[in-house]
């Protein structure tokens, strides 16, 4: 059916030789007056890992949803082995051999792992037979899952494994991966890379979307770059540096993060003292005698493999889980273990949970309403809440401007933003509020290189203004870039914190795996501090 292809497709075909396994030509997708894709051409060949690069809001996810049948293009065609095909729904895409690993998990919270996977599998593959295949694939690829666990009880990393296993069980000829390592530890990512190389060697095509450009350079030999919904370039990533790739994506050089050099450390602002909490359910992780201390001006990084108590630690710090003893958690010296999240916010704390959709933000509510949800405990009460809503609108506007949040419309629903732009908004919302204590879980999950640098610099700058910051992250590069000291959470137990400059990724990685053989000798982090004057600080 070549004669019916757009001129752009015929021109590329004459220059580039063999018919691609899949192609997208002249793709335009409009949402009202907003154009997400504008004349995009893309060809994917069998036996290659092809990168699709672009900053947050560049149109990558929209294009992927078109290829997977979740969206229909306003204009343009999709081809399979040279023939134009219609993809009215994901089932049609899967029949053609297209599988997708989503950045935002498309999982049913109240179903088990096996039940979620069964939703996209043939009806004759269910029950014990499906559970056995899940287990075998987990053993073969190192993607271990308990088929009987409900999804709501899983960490983000474990949910990502469901997406990957669900895709691989369909035996796809094209695998689309949207930020597949964003919630994986380095060891888990290495396992995934081995899987991807194996799939490529089997002759499958892989379309790889990632803001981790070192991964792109390692895996991919071709890349298509989007900016503002248009293709602005193509390259061999192995012939580029991470910085040059980032510059192509954003159209200018990406600034480097400037670490804080020295600086006065203030008084202790956040403290956990031998906090123990039982697991909230059979599939969660109990916390065991967790002690830590963070002073104003400090950034403490918490590393760990997904599912080792990060969610439970965040809930204990934010007040979503109450401590058995009020003194177990202290904010600026005040016992808050028995207080909830609103009371802790009134004491000057801010919180950014791991899951941005549904936990950090209400998807159907506007950005200003989401700003109000997080800040109303600290606002003065007025009749009808008019002053509070006006302040929330001002806060949302400041966040949008300061963190370059790309959006359609003046005050859109949070769920209409791309994943990276929503992440920028929820992190920026807390930073702009100038908290005295800030707890962040996975601060740069799914954001592009420029946005990640901006967020990390904003965190460093906030600490310099006297805030005590605790960052939970699976990205060791991130922790070593911004944290003054790092501790490791393993099976609900926190190791002593060590200065980042006195340890290594290898040593931290061993602790993440449960080894204590290479743990450096350090003092207990929960020792009392000598109070020091802290900078003037807004709450």
From TrEMBL:
Transmembrane segments: none annotated. Keywords: ATP-binding, Nucleotide-binding. SMART domains: AAA (SM00382). Belongs to the ABC transporter superfamily. One of its GO terms (molecular function) is ATP binding. The lineage of its organism: Bacteria, Pseudomonadati, Pseudomonadota, Alphaproteobacteria, Hyphomicrobiales. Residues 519-539 are annotated as: Disordered. InterPro entries: AAA+_ATPase (IPR003593), ABC_carbohydrate_import_ATPase (IPR050107), ABC_transporter-like_ATP-bd (IPR003439), ABC_transporter-like_CS (IPR017871), P-loop_NTPase (IPR027417). Residues 22-253, 270-516 form the ABC transporter domain. It comes from Methylobacterium thuringiense. This is Xylose import ATP-binding protein XylG. It comes from the Bacteria.
């Amino acid at each position: 059916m070549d004669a019916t292809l757009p001129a752009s497709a015929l021109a590329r075909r004459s220059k580039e030789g063999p018919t691609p396994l899949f192609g997208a030509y002249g793709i335009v997708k409009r949402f009202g007056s907003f154009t997400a894709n504008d004349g995009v051409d893309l060809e994917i060949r069998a036996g290659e890992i092809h990168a699709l690069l672009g900053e947050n809001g560049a149109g990558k996810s929209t294009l992927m949803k078109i290829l997977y049948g979740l969206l229909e293009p306003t204009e343009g065609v999709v081809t399979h082995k040279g023939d134009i095909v219609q993809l009215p729904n994901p089932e049609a895409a899967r029949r053609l051999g297209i599988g997708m690993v989503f950045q935002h998990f498309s999982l049913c919270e109240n179903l088990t792992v096996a039940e979620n996977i069964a939703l996209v599998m043939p009806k004759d593959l269910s029950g014990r037979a499906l559970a056995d295949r899940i287990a075998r694939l987990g053993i073969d690829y190192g993607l271990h899952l308990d088929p009987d666990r409900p999804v709501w009880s899983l960490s983000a990393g474990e949910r990502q494994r469901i997406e990957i296993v669900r895709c691989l069980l369909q035996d796809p000829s094209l695998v689309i991966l949207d930020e597949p390592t964003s919630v994986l530890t380095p060891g888990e990512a290495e396992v995934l890379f081995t899987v991807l190389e194996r799939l490529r060697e089997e002759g499958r095509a892989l379309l790889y979307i990632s803001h981790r450009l070192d991964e792109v350079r390692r895996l991919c030999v071709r890349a298509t770059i989007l900016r503002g919904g248009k293709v602005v370039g193509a390259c061999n990533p192995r012939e580029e540096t991470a910085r040059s790739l980032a510059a192509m994506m954003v159209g200018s050089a990406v600034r480097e993060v400037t670490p804080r050099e020295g600086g006065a450390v203030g008084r202790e602002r956040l403290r956990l003292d031998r906090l123990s909490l039982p697991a909230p359910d059979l599939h969660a992780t109990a916390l065991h005698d967790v002690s830590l201390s963070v002073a104003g001006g400090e950034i403490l990084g918490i590393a760990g493999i997904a599912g080792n108590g990060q969610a439970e630690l965040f809930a204990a710090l934010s007040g979503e889980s109450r401590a058995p003893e009020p003194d177990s958690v202290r904010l600026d010296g005040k016992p808050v273990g028995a207080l909830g999240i609103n009371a802790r916010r009134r004491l000057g704390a801010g919180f950014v949970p791991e899951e941005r959709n549904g936990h950090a933000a209400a998807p159907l509510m506007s950005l200003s309403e989401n700003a109000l949800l997080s800040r109303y405990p600290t606002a003065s009460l007025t009749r009808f809440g008019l002053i509070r809503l006006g302040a929330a609108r001002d806060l949302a506007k400041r966040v949008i401007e300061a963190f370059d949040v790309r959006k359609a419309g003046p005050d859109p629903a949070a769920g209409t933003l791309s994943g990276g732009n929503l992440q920028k908004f929820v992190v920026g919302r807390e930073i702009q509020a100038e908290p005295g204590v800030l707890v962040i879980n996975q601060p740069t999950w799914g954001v592009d290189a420029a946005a990640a640098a901006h967020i990390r610099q904003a965190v460093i700058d906030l600490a310099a203004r006297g805030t005590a910051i605790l960052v939970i992250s699976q990205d060791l590069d991130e922790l070593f870039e911004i944290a003054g000291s790092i501790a490791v959470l393993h099976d609900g137990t926190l190791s002593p914190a060590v200065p980042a400059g006195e340890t290594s990724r290898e040593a931290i990685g061993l602790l993440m795996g449960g080894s204590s053989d290479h743990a450096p000798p350090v003092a207990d982090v929960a020792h009392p501090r000598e109070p020091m004057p802290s900078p003037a600080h807004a709450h």
